[in-house]
Predict the 3D structure of the following.
Amino acid sequence: RTISDDAVRVWVDGKLAIDDWAPHESVVDHAPLAGGRHRLRVEYYQVDGWVELRLDFVRGTESSTGTAGPH
């Protein structure tokens, strides 16, 4: 799960898993992830104002909701 403002992309094992590559206010994006080891690549950019990037790993038994920033 990511929480980002302005744009983020996440690849897991070379495959694009989160593609929210347009300016936006703080938003939560989700992508499934199987157990085990993985290669991650994260791209992020900021236009102006509030800066936020968070990458969380949540087990299936835990809450998968996130709270975006104050916008």
Observations:
- The longest strand covers residues 7-12.
- The chain has one domain: 2-55.
- Residues 2-55 form one domain.
